[in-house]
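[Automated response] Your request has been received and processed.

Submitted sequence:
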Amino acid sequence: MKNTENPVVSIHYTLTNKAGEKLDSSVGGEPLTYIHGAGNIIPGLEKALSETTVGDKLTVTVEPEDTYGHRNDEQTQTVGKEMFEGIDNIEVGMQFQADSSSGPAIVTVTEVNEDTITIDGNHPLAGEQLTFDVEVMEIRSATETEMEHGHIHGSGCNHD
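Generated structure:
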């Protein structure tokens, strides 16, 4: 089956940054499974996987505009520690959910001072050129329910 018309696709991948550092991998675990065309994965990778078939192996390098976007300095701000009331030990690298003008967002703590904390609302990989080594493991037709919901059903899904 060819990867066209919103199929469910399972891939194994290894993700590296421009320096060649491994950031993530599904190899040795469960493959990543998604509905092609539903926006479930980053646009640049999804585009590269169009019209692939089971067994295809490819290396895809994706620029920031087709991954998590470019860094936006306006998404970094310094706030008073009182914004984290009830949390005793705040450290660089911790992530929290915050309300933003476009809804809930994840922010990462980038600096902790005596009275202030600097948070960054950019995705941790924003501004990065990313390379995916991919193998297409399986392609199947999406069920009607999966298409209605916009995601696959199976392991980890909490509804039918």
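Summary generated for your ticket: The domain at 73-120 is CATH 2.40.10.330 (Thrombin, subunit H). The first helix runs from residue 43 to 48.
If you did not submit this request, please reply to this message.
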